[in-house]
Amino acid sequence: MITFAVHGIGKPQRALDPGEDERWITVEQFDALLDVVSGSGAQLTFDDGNSSDVEIALPRLVERGLYAEFFPLAGRVGERGYVDRGGLRQLVDAGMHVGSHGWDRLDWRRFDGSFAVRRELDEAPRLLEQLSGTPVRRFSLPEGRFDRRVLTHLREAGATRVYANVGGVRGAALVRSRTEIRSDLNSRWAEAVSRRPRRFPGRWASRPGR
After folding, report:
1. Is 27 exposed, middle or buried (0-12, 13-18, 19+ CB in 10 A)?
2. Pick from 3, 2, 9: which is nearest to 48 by CA?
3. How many CB atoms lie within 10 A of CB 207?
4. How far apart are CA 120 and CA 117, in angstroms?
5. Are strands 43-48 and 68-72 parallel, antiparallel or unpaired?
6. What is the pLDDT of residues 4-44, one digit of tens each?
7. How many CB atoms lie within 10 A of CB 4?
8. CA 192 to CA 210: how far, in whole Å?
């Protein structure tokens, strides 16, 4: 089953990090994606914890009876343009799952010491548990990348599921691959991908009309 990774929707309520605009889609594009998901059984995940998760995505998911997993950046919860504690509780109360995207947007393969490991893999999920009121044992990898050392840290942190942009990794049964939604989304592509066997990288590079 295909899993789509969504980031921001609609007009950003904050300054975007470099390159982040490539992962933002319009409300109309998101509605078209939901049409595809509703008809195909594809799964949805949301990274970063943007305020659009609660303001735009959540009511549409509830209206359609769809389930999704949300992976906020723990260190940005409550900042302008990101979900706050109330938003996390809304997600949980609506039956959605809250996991961890780490503390900040860092490549976990480049941990430079025990402090970074503790903050990203221990403190981040612990804080999200406190704020959301639900256990956090699922992780979404920043940039979707990992190595054996990262997997070891995740196992030690008690991870039960890890989302990445690649799949079929030997010895990494807890890793699930995703396909990243980008700003040039079109529903024909999404529909075609959702019906295709999962034998390709989790990053989308096609353009509308292809």
Report:
1. middle
2. 9
3. 10
4. 5
5. parallel
6. 999 999 999 999 999 999 999 999 999 999 999 998 989 99
7. 23
8. 11
Question: To which residue do tokens 């890793």 refer?
Answer: 175
d(Cα 125, Cα 131) in Å, to the nearest integer? 10
SS3 70: strand
One-letter amino acid of 132: S
The region that residue 65 occupies, defined by phi over 0 for left and psi between -120 and 50 for alpha, beta otherwise, is left
pLDDT in tens, 86-113: 999 999 999 999 999 999 988 888 877 7
Closest CA to 143 of 11, 5, 8, 2: 5
Nearest in space to 42 (alpha carbons), one of 69, 19, 18: 69
Beta strands in 57-135 (DSSP E): 68-72, 97-98
3-195 CATH fold:
TIM Barrel (3.20.20)
| Contact by Cβ (8 Å): 23, 180 | yes
Phi, psi of 21 (to 5 degrees): -60, -25
